[in-house]
Specification:
Blueprint: H1 5-18, H2 21-25, E1 30-37, E2 42-45, E3 48-52, E4 55-59, E5 65-70, E6 77-81, E7 83-85, H3 87-96, H4 98-107, E8 111-113, E9 117-121, H5 135-142, H6 147-150
């Protein structure tokens, strides 16, 4: 008793529509790469030390992560990796009907991570201020934020009150 090509195609179609697209094609963790300047920083993910940069580790896609880079003599750097719903998986699920939507929603298979590489630029803890703005401060200036809201002046440099 051999199965006809039509019957095999029907079984394959039912299997694909009965399972969510994310569950079929987006399962398993995402490989995330961690680098730093300088290299050799300890990498902590949600408070647990995971290794030293450069480093690649698998992270489940259905979680949010706080990444901390630490190295002796340097200020620690904190970054985040967040989960988000992959719009492509949702669209494919909706096209497949209600069952794939339910399966991927229940299993979290339509989640993806916001990034697959995280870089920490560590600054020396002993380096005096250079007078240069950080990229974040420059961006704020470009958006029209007054410098007085960006910089914290030492007390001896702050403007004096009006005396009233």
């Amino acid at each position: 008793m051999t199965a006809s090509p039509k019957r095999l195609a029907l079984v394959a179609l039912i299997a694909i529509t009965a399972a969510g697209c994310g569950a079929l094609f987006n399962s398993g963790p995402a490989l995330v790469t961690f680098t730093s300047s300088p290299e050799g920083a300890d990498v902590y993910v949600n408070g647990t030390r995971r290794g030293v940069t450069p480093l690649s580790i698998p992270l489940p896609k259905d979680g949010d992560y706080v990444v901390t880079f630490r190295k002796d003599g340097y200020e620690e750097v904190v970054a985040t990796v967040n989960k988000k719903v992959g719009a492509g998986w949702v669209i494919l699920d909706v096209l497949g009907g209600l069952v794939p939507v339910i399966i991927d929603a229940a299993t979290g298979s339509w989640y993806v991570l916001s990034t697959h590489s995280v870089h920490g630029s560590l600054e020396s803890a002993n380096t005096p201020a250079t007078g240069a703005l950080t990229p974040e401060q420059l961006d704020a200036v470009r958006r029209g934020v007054p410098m007085s809201r960006i910089l914290e002046l030492p007390a001896e440099l702050a403007p004096a009150g009006d005396g009233s």
